Amino acid sequence: MTQPRHALLATIALVVGGVAIGTTEFVTMGLLPDIAQGISVSIPEAGHSISAYAAGVVVGAPLLAMLGATWPRKELLVGLTVAFVIGNVMTALAPDYGWLLVARFVAGMPHGAFFGVAALVAVDLAAKGREGRAVSRVMLGIPIANVLGVPGATWLGQNFGWRSAYWLVAVLGIVTVGLLMAYIPHLERNIEGTIRRELQGFATVQVALTLLVGAIGFGGMFAMASYIAPTVTDVTGLDASAVPLFLLASGIGGLVGTPLAGRLGEWSVLRAITIGCVGMGVNLVAFALTAHWWPTALFFYFLSSVLAGILVVNLQLRLMQVAGEAQTLAAASNHAALNTANALGAWLGGLVIANGLGYTAPSWVGAGLSVLGAAVLGLSLLKHRADTRPSLARVS
């Protein structure tokens, strides 16, 4: 059994890696004007670097998880972090637009696989009955990045050139490599793991339904959050300087929701996901109805991140429950599904805005996506009950 102190140090190593990944994922949004000016493209063109990163996550999560299926998990985490460092160094050195897009794609590829494998390692090191809390602690890297890493890297990039932000992230990645090598215990090579076994375990109805819950249901939050800046100014009526307050509230919401998610997951993973999906739908309706008043707008935006934390952690736990021999592939694919949700929610939200329905319309769309996610979860629950109900023949 792993000693508590060693488990704590291992968790810290994984969280630092999560902070680095969360920072590089979101810092680009705050530096788009600087990046655009630096490489002589328009801001919308520079924005494609965000899409390139998301594409890297979607492609890299299953691909790297399959290729690393037989690797010891410590060595796989180190390899993924080295790839992450390379992608961010490439970004910092990018001489032109094409190089930047490739660099962001490369930087995104290890994202999902890192969090997936980190969750598996956390469970390996956790005391029995505390697996949910172990996974939730690992996932704290993203909200910590939103509260500390992203504002800090954005300030650095705005004052010392946008490339400095990615150099900072690369340094964080190097620190993570050192921490992983020092504090993650050696875990035996998965001799049973092969690409074929991973694919066979992955191709199940419950894995597909769980990923769909994430890809659709989680899109609800992104439909609203993608347009929070113009919502704050045009609907709530605040100055643009108030937007960072909303972003800070979102980060704090993640810090609240993520550890809460672990405890809910130890109670019931499926019930926790239900709370996340249904709660998100209700919350988005409440946001749409009260966004004109800043206290309620701020509160419901905060609450959306609390519910998002509950969803992310428990979708991860659910995949680990149903994946069978596809543990690495399924765990990594959770973040591919969440990035699909990001793209879906932002696209649908932009669509209703472009059709003149206003900045509260994305929240209504998001509520609809949350309802659809809950419906898919309902199918998963029915399948779960059918699979676990004793047959009449067995009873007789």
UniProtKB/TrEMBL annotation:
InterPro entries reported in the protein's UniProt record: MFS (IPR011701), MFS_dom (IPR020846), MFS_Efflux_Transporters (IPR050189), MFS_trans_sf (IPR036259)
User: What's an example GO cellular component term for this entry?
Assistant: plasma membrane
**Lineage top rank: taxon:** Bacteria
* Keyword Transmembrane helix attached: yes
Report the transmembrane regions from the record.
46-69, 76-95, 101-126, 138-158, 164-184, 205-229, 241-262, 269-291, 297-315, 336-357, 363-382
One Pfam family linked to the record: MFS_1
Q: Does the record carry Membrane as a key word?
A: yes
Q: What are the protein's GO molecular function terms?
A: transmembrane transporter activity
User: What keywords are assigned to this protein?
Assistant: Cell membrane, Membrane, Transmembrane, Transmembrane helix
The way it spans or sits in the membrane comes to: Multi-pass membrane protein
Domain Major facilitator superfamily (MFS) profile, which positions? 10-385
Signal sequence coordinates: none
Where in or outside the cell it occurs: the entry states: Cell membrane
Q: What is this protein called?
A: MFS transporter
Annotated source species: Knoellia sinensis KCTC 19936
